[in-house]
Amino acid sequence: MISNPEFLREGHAIHDWLNPDRIVIGADEPESTRYLSSLYTSLDAPVVETDPTSAELIKYAANTFLALKITYANTLAELCEHIGANITDVRTGIGHDPRIGNTYLDAGPGWGGPCLPKDVRALVSTGTRTTTDLGLLHALLETNAYHQRRIVTLVEQLLPRPLTGARVAVLGLAFKAATNDLRDSPALHIANLLAARRAHVTAYDPAIDASATPTAGQLTLTESATAAVAGADVVLVLTEWPEFAELPWHHLARDMRGDVVLDTRGKLDRTLLRGAGLHLRTLGEPFSEIAAARTA
Ligand SMILES: NC(=O)c1ccc[n+]([C@@H]2O[C@H](COP(=O)([O-])OP(=O)(O)OC[C@H]3O[C@@H](n4cnc5c(N)ncnc54)[C@H](O)[C@@H]3O)[C@@H](O)[C@H]2O)c1
Ligand SMILES: O=c1ccn([C@@H]2O[C@H](COP(=O)(O)OP(=O)(O)O[C@H]3O[C@H](CO)[C@@H](O)[C@H](O)[C@H]3O)[C@@H](O)[C@H]2O)c(=O)[nH]1
Where in this chain does the record put each UDP-glucose/GDP-mannose dehydrogenase C-terminal domain (predicted)? Predict the structure, then answer.
């Protein structure tokens, strides 16, 4: 048996496959390793030759480490909000240290998709069959679920009315930009949590065909951002599609009932939104501006 894990990212599949950081080959027989290695001679990457169990563990361990980094960033972002620090600066400040690096530290609505959640759970499941202390990994899963629920709490805090009956416009349902994948998507999960709290949720994602996509909850999918945002008490950006920054916010603001945008990906232009008369709330930044507007 040979284990040959793949490390490409959705949305970058061809680039990542042609430019791998490493090739991992786990085989019991040297002949099998030699044969599989020969298939990769056109690619310029270090080859890690190992046994099948270690190869499988490399895959789970890599995805779990990425999940740990993201969750750490999300925890820091929440802390920043409470103590008046700025997550962007904190991230830059720690990221210059090459031992830490500056990737997978973007605060957001929790990690998801078809790979990270599955592989963290697989690592936990594998460890459960042993006496290994898995406290860190259990905490990772629990904390990621907490960070998704936290977005619902933030929406609730930003609304000038109860969440029940409020109109929430969700921009982005895919688990990240450059894909239409809804598997284990934090965005879809959060939208469903809001709908379960009896908010009226209208959602738009540029890669999701509203007419062809069944949703489990009470979500209304729309074919445009304009349609999703019309009448909204609050706009919630959950996927980092670049086009959301380019939306005609002046026009959208006129059709909204409220004046707050919660951008969980930190990609919108604060000056542009302010010019449109909207209050922008991001993760990991103090939000006194909105609190001041509410108490004025
Ligand atoms: N999605 C990614 O970006 C990505 C990246 C790297 C590695 N991987 C790994 O690749 C694998 C597949 O991921 P995916 O996202 O393409 O999943 P997927 O669910 O989209 O595709 C899996 C396919 O395998 C088929 N299948 C499942 N069991 C089968 C069986 N017993 N016999 C024949 N066909 C079977 C399914 O019908 C499906 O078409 C996973 O192990 C994943 O961890 C995925
Ligand atoms: O700084 C970051 C980076 C990512 N994410 C989130 O993390 C999740 C995963 O993102 P990404 O790694 O880009 O997605 P995948 O395409 O699922 O790729 C991961 O899973 C694949 C399948 O196992 C592996 O091959 C890849 O190496 C691994 O990056 C998504 O919800 C992202 O929004 C963040 O919140 N902040």
Answer: 169-270
* Residue 187 in tokens: 């965005």
19-40 per-position pLDDT tens digit? 999 999 999 999 999 999 999 9
State residue 217's pLDDT score: 65
Q: Is the CB of 8 under 6 A from ligand 1?
A: yes
10 CB near ligand 1 (under 6 Å): yes
Is the CB of 20 inside a 6 Å radius of any atom of ligand 1?
no
ipTM surpasses 0.85: yes
CB atoms within 10 A of CB 85: 16
**Which position among 36, 57, 90, 115 bears the catalytic label?**
115
Quick one: 160 and 286 in the same domain?
yes
Count up the domains in the chain and report the number: 2
pLDDT, tens digit, 9 for 90 and up, residues 113-154? 999 999 999 999 999 999 999 999 999 999 999 999 999 999
Helix pair angle (135-158, 186-196), 10° resolution: 50
CA of 54 to the centre of ligand 2 (A): 22
Domain carrying residue 15: 1-50
The closest of 49, 45, 17, 55 to 36, measured between CA atoms, is 49
Averaged pLDDT for residues 144-166: 97
Q: Give the list of residues 6+ apart from residue 23 with CB closer than 8 angstroms, or none.
A: 4, 37, 40, 43, 45, 46, 47, 48
Q: Which ligand is nearest to the CA of 67?
A: 2
Q: Is 246 in the pocket of ligand 1 (CB under 6 A)?
A: no
Return the residue whose CA atom lies nearest to atom 36 of ligand 2: 106
Name the closest ligand to CA 115: 2
Residue 274 resides in a domain: yes
CATH number at residue 242: 3.40.50.720
Mean pLDDT along residues 34-57:
97
